[in-house]
Design goal:
Helix content is 50%, strand content 11%. The chain has 314 residues and is an alpha/beta fold. α12 (267-283) packs antiparallel against α13.
Length: 314
């Protein structure tokens, strides 16, 4: 006779290994703390200022009290500093100067821009500094916790803490990717270029399709953009298609003319991306040199027109 199956242990019933606090209940901190809770750690405190951040904390960390930042540090073994990049250095210095940081305490920030060095004031107070940046956009809802599964984290830490940093990322369901201290600004710029600018481009594209009479721009763009992204991740520049990569100067000129008429605010961005696309297509042998001359001529002429003040007929 088979022995009865052991009852499944709920996360809240498992012995907690670390108490977790969050300073800054934006979109990132509560989601990471919720993931750590699923791994058996115990969120105990969160600081939140705005009504929106308080709602996020209540939704993702139910039952966790909202307290002042110094109180978060007093209660937590692991503290997540999830504040805007520009606020991080001042926050760390302030917490260290007031004696809020305890020796042996794990202090983790999630900024992409900074490595572990920004936490030096806390380190001098005896804390263990980690920089763990999830390479994902956050919504501030429970879906973020699910999206952390397989998400890459940019990890920077002192050598002696590298294994601890990677273990925390793995417990949150992520994949640790080591980033050197001096490479953090470039790493973050690369992510912003790919993700943040993508949102702007997609939003502009949907607006233009709506003006063109397309009833469901999102449905039209979904399969196209999904295929383009998949091809780009697989093949890089070899995935380039479209009139610029083909050298269709007349089509590009028509595009610019239509954009000037219907959405002049998009012209500068179109021209900048078209020139960059042409350069990359030419360098990788996709754009024929004999076609590139006419194309670049169109882009240069349109660039001059874009810089000219409205009403200037010179």
């Amino acid at each position: 006779m088979n022995a009865p199956a052991a009852p499944e242990t709920r996360p809240e019933d498992r012995p907690a290994r670390l108490t977790v606090g969050v300073v800054g209940a934006g979109r990132v901190g509560p989601a990471l703390a919720a993931s750590l809770r699923l791994a058996g750690h115990r969120p105990v405190a969160v600081s939140a200022v705005s009504d929106a951040s308080r709602r996020r904390a209540a939704d993702l960390l139910p039952g966790v009290p909202v307290v002042e930042p110094a109180r978060v540090l007093a209660l937590a073994d692991l503290v997540l500093l999830t504040v805007p990049d520009d606020a991080l250095p001042g926050l760390v210095e302030g917490l260290a100067d007031t004696g809020a940081v305890r020796p042996g305490q794990l202090i983790v920030h999630t900024s992409g821009r900074y490595g572990a060095r920004v936490l030096d004031p806390a380190r001098r107070a005896g804390a263990l500094p980690l920089a763990l940046h999830p390479a994902m956009t956050f919504t501030g809802t429970a879906v973020d916790v699910q999206r952390l599964a397989g998400c890459s984290f940019g990890v920077t830490a002192p050598d002696e803490l590298r294994l601890a940093a990677e273990a925390l990322v793995i417990e949150m369901g992520g994949e640790p990717e080591w980033v050197a201290e001096e490479a953090r600004p470039l790493y973050h710029a690369a992510l912003a270029l790919g993700a943040n600018h993508l949102v702007t481009l997609v939003a502009q594209s949907m607006e233009l399709l709506h003006k063109a009479g397309v009833a469901a721009p999102d449905r039209m763009l979904g399969p196209l953009l999904g295929a383009a992204l998949d091809n780009a991740l697989r093949s890089g520049d070899a995935a380039l298609t479209g009139p610029v990569a083909r050298g269709d100067a007349g089509t590009v000129a028509a595009h610019v003319a239509e954009l000037r008429k219907h959405a002049p605010g998009t012209v500068a961005g179109y021209l900048a991306m078209a020139r960059t696309t042409a350069d990359r297509a030419l360098a990788h042998g996709l754009l024929k040199p004999e076609l590139a001359e006419d194309l670049l001529g169109v882009l240069a002429a349109d660039s001059t027109a874009a810089d000219r003040p409205q009403g200037d007929d010179r």
